[in-house]
UniProtKB/TrEMBL annotation:
Alphabetical list of PANTHER family matching this protein: CONSERVED HYPOTHETICAL PHAGE TAIL PROTEIN
Signal peptide (from-to): none
InterPro entries found in the cross-reference section: CHP02241 (IPR011747), Phage_T4_Gp19 (IPR010667)
Organism: Flavobacterium chungangensis
NCBIfam families hit by this protein: conserved hypothetical phage tail region protein
Protein name per its UniProtKB record: Phage tail protein
Pfam families in the cross-refs: Phage_T4_gp19
Amino acid sequence: MAVSSDYPVSFYFTLSFAGVDAAFKEVSGISKELSVEEIVCGGENRFKYRLPTISNSQNLVLKRAMVPAGSQLVNWCANCIDQGLSNPIQPKNVILKLLNASGVVCMQWTFNNAYPVKYAVSDLNSQESNIAIESIELAYTYFDISKDTKFDKLFT
C-alpha cells in the first residue's frame, strides 16, 4: 500500500472577510466542544449519567505584523469595540482556507456572524528588534467545515 504525501500543511492559508483578503501569521481557536451535564440518579451510586447539552466554541484569534493605518479589518474592530454599543455591531462571515502546496483549497472554515471582541498589540521593547504584532480576537456564532473531496480518502 502506497503512503500518500498529500497531507495539508498548516503554514499555507488565506483568510478573508467581506470580500477582503487579509494576511496573518497565525490563526488559533478553531475548535468545537459539546458540553455535558452530569445527572446523579437516586439509588445508583456506581456512575453519573452524562447528557449532552449545548456546543460551544473558543474565540478565533488572528495574529499578524502590524499594518499601517487604513486596514479595513482594524477599522471594523475600532467601530465595533470603541462605539460601546451606541451603534449596532455589524457581524461578518470570516472564511479561512487551508491550501495545499499547489495553492488549491483543501479545507475551508466559515465562521458565521463573527465580530471583534479584542484588539491587542504585542509589547514594545527597545532592547529587541522584533516586528510589532497585532492580535485580533473574534467571537462568532458557529463555524462550518468543508473540505476538498480528494482529501476524503486520506481520512477514511
